[in-house]
Design goal:
By secondary structure, the protein is an alpha/beta fold. It has helices spanning 12-22, 38-43, 57-61, 81-86, 99-114, 117-125, 128-132, 153-164, 188-194, 214-220, 237-245, 284-302, and strands at residues 4-7, 25-27, 46-49, 68-71, 90-92, 145-149, 168-172, 183-185, 197-200, 225-228, 251-254, 273-275. Helices cover 36% and strands 15% of the residues. Strand 3, helix 3 and strand 4 form a beta-alpha-beta unit. The structure holds NADP nicotinamide-adenine-dinucleotide phosphate. NADP nicotinamide-adenine-dinucleotide phosphate binds at residues 74-75, 95, 98, 102, 150-155, 173-175, 201-204, 207-208, 229-231, 255-256, 278, 280-281.
Amino acid sequence: MTTTLVIGPYTDTDTAAAKQAFAPVILDRISELAGLDETTRSAITALAYKGHTAVGPAEMDLLPKLGLIANYGVGYDAIDIPAATERGIRVTNTPDVLNDDVADLAVGMLLMQMREMEQASNWARSGNWKTRGEYRLAHRMTGGRAGIVGLGRIGREIADRLAAFKMDIHYYARSEKQTPGWTFHADPVSLAHAVDFLVIAIVGGPDTEKFVSKDVIDALGPRGVVVNISRGTTVDEAALLDALEQGRIAGAGLDVFLGEPDIDPCFYELSNVVIQPHHGSGTVETRAAMGQLQRDNIAAFHAGQPLLTAVN
Ligand code: NAP
């Protein structure tokens, strides 16, 4: 009887590798779990999960022998960790292998926003360059003051990249870190006051909901830019939209949104927002590494070996 269940939209390569390694039951989405017959569900001990839909007590209880949820992604806010722990279910994630790509996208969005690259490209493509002349002047990114909200694995990669752009680096974390002279702020409002660009890289979930509040956004000021690669939940999105619409901040670069992919359509109307479809880790190379790490955790679990990247 198959003991591994794979849920989510995987690449053909990942699906083939999972089939070869575990001969799993495969579902497209977590909502299909209840439709599996009881005999199949009762045999499952490991779940490979890829998705942002919640996996809570109800889903866990449909799999009475479940011992592992191997999440595809470093952010595991979709999984109810206390409920898993209570049931003796271990959870793993895929940290580190995606740091570079997510950091690249954060810096890319900031550069796109500051240099108005999307609008300038449209200016050239539409023929305006030929008929109306040069595109208007944008603003410099290099040498600005950057504030990283959450100096974890990804936050540090972002800070390193922005330091190479000759920026003065400030950061918020719950505790001060060893850094090459970067400035620690114990409070995100103080951080926002000190910088031009605020890049959000904290974990998602209930503890950090609206961590970047209206007060933080207001502290950034009218030349400020918000970049978010963490989760839509970490920002007060209504306050961010108000600030963008009213020009109380200059712009934003956003890879993550509340309710994605069905995001607030107000974002589409704003020319001062760079929108990306939550693909910070979306390269062939990184996604392959994430799939491999997820499978390695499942293999370790089935073999009774220590998990490689345990969350609980
Ligand atoms: P990490 O190494 O665990 O760093 C997380 C940071 O969040 C740390 O600085 C941590 O502070 C801070 N933090 C944790 N809990 C907090 C709390 N309750 N209040 C305030 N700050 C808190 O995580 P990571 O690997 O850098 O990943 C960060 C997040 O990026 C993920 O959780 C995920 O949501 C997101 N992500 C997005 C994409 C994308 O495609 N856009 C891809 C990958 C990850 P301390 O340093 O004080 O512990």
